[in-house]
Specification:
about 30% strand, about 180 residues, 4-stranded antiparallel beta sheet, PH-domain like, about 40% helix
């Protein structure tokens, strides 16, 4: 990418394929449940079990549409989960750092279970700061990620589930290595 060689660097943390596979399997199970609800809703509406009995009841065509929507959503979640589980066993994933900078290689999920390998290589002169970030829903932490802010405003977000160590630990190690490099 920018001439940075990852071979002379030390590992910052270990890649965690078991965690990624487990998350993918859980996501696939949830997708299967949503897909099943969609198929069941469509089947019930098509067989007349959901026929309107009173003037304010939902028409059966609407329930069929809801069933199709749920089935499509469930299939997307299921295929995404399977893709995450498959990508967990991608080879040669790493998070390395050295006196020159950092190098990261991870699988990036695509549609319908596909994935590609992405690499990020940056010299310390390109990196403004590293930040541990927590996503919250109603003040409840739901996920964490390490954000690498580059000069010029670009930001690379790396989800916590890819690696064995916590985001704060990874950030601390990166700051140590950066300090040793004198940057």
């Amino acid at each position: 990418m920018n001439g940075l060689d990852a071979s002379g660097m030390q590992s910052v943390t270990r890649y965690a394929p078991a965690r990624i596979a487990a998350l993918g399997i859980l996501k696939a199970i949830f997708g299967t449940l949503v897909l099943g609800m969609g198929v069941l809703a469509y089947w019930a509406a098509a067989n007349g079990d959901m026929a309107p009995k009173q003037p304010g009841d939902m028409p059966s065509w609407w329930m069929m549409l809801v069933g199709v929507g749920l089935a499509v959503l469930g299939f997307a979640i299921l295929s995404g989960g399977l893709g995450r589980a498959i990508s967990a066993f991608a080879g040669d994933c790493f998070f390395r750092a050295g006196t020159e900078g950092i190098a990261i290689r991870l699988p990036k999920q695509g549609w319908f279970g596909r994935f590609t390998m992405t690499e990020h290589r940056y010299k310390w002169d390109e990196i403004e700061q590293t930040v541990h970030f927590t996503h919250r829903i109603n003040f409840v932490p739901v996920s964490r990620e390490l954000r690498i802010r580059l000069y010029g405003g670009r930001e690379i977000a790396i989800a916590r589930f890819y690696f064995a160590d916590s985001v704060k630990t990874i950030q601390g190690r990166l700051e140590e290595i950066r300090a040793r490099a004198g940057k």
